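Hey, I'm writing a tutorial for new members on how sequence and structure tokens pair up, and I'd like a real worked example in the thread rather than a made-up one. If someone can provide the structure for the chain below, I'll link this post from the tutorial.
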Amino acid sequence: MWVAFTSVAVVLAVACVVLMVLGSLRPRRFAFAARPGVRWGLGAAAIVLVVAVSVVELRPAYEVAVSVPQDPVAGEESAVTVTAENLGLWNGTFEAECLVDGRSVGTVTIEVESGRKASSEVPLPKDLLAGDHVVEVAGAASRMRVLRPAAFEVAAVERAGSPVKSGGRAEVTVTVANTGEVDGTYKVKLRVDDEVVARKEVPVPAGSTAEVTFKPKLRGEREHTIAAGEKSVTVRSVQTTRYASGHELRWKVVLGVGAPTTENPGGADGLVILASSKSAPTTRIAVYVRARSTAVVDGIPDGTYWVYYTLGRDWAPSRKGFLTVTERGSFTEPLDYTTTYEADGSYYYDRWTIGLKPTDVDESEAVPVDPVDEGDFPTLDGGAPSQTV
């Protein structure tokens, strides 16, 4: 509009001047322009038009730039920066609406001196949805992507082992997922049987997962539900004990005169089982032997016995086994017990020493040991498998 006005004003001013000149040079041909009143009028008109053109050219003129925030997040405060440069020779006030996707979100007003730049911010609405948007001010536009805020969910709750002894600590790992587009920190609340027992903050990168470990203390002989968020896992706590060396956990034989000695020089308690066979072992006798101790079992009847043993800690009576097993094995040769009676009424019998760790015996007299898997180990109830979680 202002360009068209300027062009017309210039043309008219030139025309007035030309008519004045022609009226002076050729008064007969351009008699109307030669009249004094007309010439004064044309001169005044030319002056007015020149002044009008000057005013238009000197008015403030703005060049606008729009800067959008870097990585704005939906629901958080952010603002658009509008910069106006005054290209005119007069100071002025720039005023325009700020549009986001064609919707007005505010008005920007900037006082700008001639030949200088000035900026102002326009707050963006917090209800702006995540995604791509176009911001426009006075024809200057810029694209902006609004990110999804951090959004968390508990993806998994996993246990390291079960059961645990009463009064001991379970090890639980909680996995947290961040489905948002920005990093964030989530406070995990760990619940045991619906009671919050621990809190931890875990930073989770955008679009990724992070783990945090808890070790809650459990008590009693029972099942516990350990949960975080909507995920949970069940861990059982059991009572444990430590029997005296020689304590019989199973005796399914008649009395005899055999008396094997069991030596346990190691640092873990042990259980020694005398089984009926190798192929389908049935527990006949089971004896507890403490670490760095010796046990003598009297009354073994004649027969052939296969020796199985397990070493560990934290004996759980309800499970009939150690919570932590360090070793399971069996002797490759059986123990044969035979009682010989003499005519005078006297008798003698075989004596065996069972060593759960290397003992001071002649190497030629030692019996090799084979490792035994959990599923092949005889139970205190009779056969295999044993110690099933």
